[in-house]
Amino acid sequence: MSARSLLKQLFQKQPIFDMHRGVLCAPVRYCFMMGVVWYLAERRSCKNLNILEVGSWYGASALTWAEGLVRYCEAVGSITCVDAWQPFFDERSHEKDVYREMDAALASDGVYDVFLHNLSTLPATIETQHIRGKSRTVLPMLRPGCFDLVFVDANHVYSAVVEDLRNAAILVKEGGILCGDDLNLQLHQCDEAFARAHGEVDYARDPKVSRGFHPGVTVAVAEVIGRVCEWGGFWAVRKAGECWESISLGAMPEVYPAHLPSSLVEDARAHMADIRARGEL
User: Fold this and answer.
1) Rounded Cα gap, residues 46 and 193, in angstroms
2) Is the Cα torsion angle 273, 278, 280, 281 positive or negative in sign?
3) Which are the contacts of 123, defined by CB distance < 8 A and separation ≥ 6?
4) CATH number of the domain that 170 lies in?
């Protein structure tokens, strides 16, 4: 019996996220992901949204987009996932166990098998497809201006992020949303020289504010877009001609996707309270 058949037999239509590193980002960000779906649905007469995500891992983000479509778009829309599901960390600069574990899971196809199972649990009214390949190859093959929302969350080193953002920007419809994950610090908030010098490292600690961040994401977002709206590490902007505009999610419903374990939802609610208390939303 194949791994996919076994997963289907064991879990039926139940998503799997009770595994080590199944959810990688701060859980509060899933609320903001659903928030941008709400934002678009509120402003468009057509609620059949086309969503593209670059970097899918186990599928937590894909299920989040789907729940947003269920809640705000009558469970109608499409989700396209692009990911190679292959090891990608440079061993010379990424020696910690977390990177070895992630690459090992990718090499065995375990991540891909769970992703396929999770995608199979989505409502039939939501069209889904996945393209297994490197984003630098796949994104230029897609039709420009055909997505209402493009989410970038793949390899976090500068050379990969800047290429993904440039390719993704072309795919966003007028009035659509370009967004991404893991923008822990924007360039004006950190030591710029340090960030640029460490752009090919996944994660580092900024000496200016003594906070961990992803230098490659920070520098690439600043260069391709500039300052963006950011909430707890999730960022988003709206396409307006040749420019990118700020958006407000202050009125969005505070809803967390059903696939998140209850302990993570509790953490997310506490994080959201901090964000509101600091006046960042």
Assistant:
1) 45
2) positive
3) 66, 70, 75
4) 3.40.50.150
Tally of structural domains, the chain: 1
Residue whose structure tokens are 């934002």: 39
The single-letter DSSP state of residue 126 is: E
Residue-wise pLDDT tens for the chain (281 aa)? 455 554 554 455 677 765 555 555 688 999 999 999 999 999 876 678 999 999 998 899 999 999 999 999 998 999 999 998 876 556 665 556 666 666 666 676 788 888 999 999 999 999 999 999 999 999 999 999 999 999 999 999 999 999 999 999 999 999 999 999 999 999 999 999 999 999 999 899 999 999 999 999 999 999 999 999 999 999 999 999 999 999 999 999 999 998 888 888 999 999 999 999 998 88
Output the DSSP codes for 136-202: HHHGGGSPTT-EEEEEE-S--SHHHHHHHHHHHHHHEEEEEEEEES---S-GGGS-HHHHHHTTTSS
Query: Dihedral, CA atoms, 66, 68, 73, 74, nearest 10 degrees?
Result: 70
What count of residues does the chain have?
Answer: 281
Q: Supply the range of the domain harboring residue 207.
A: 3-277
In the structure encoding, which two tokens stand for residue 263, read together?
Answer: 């302990």
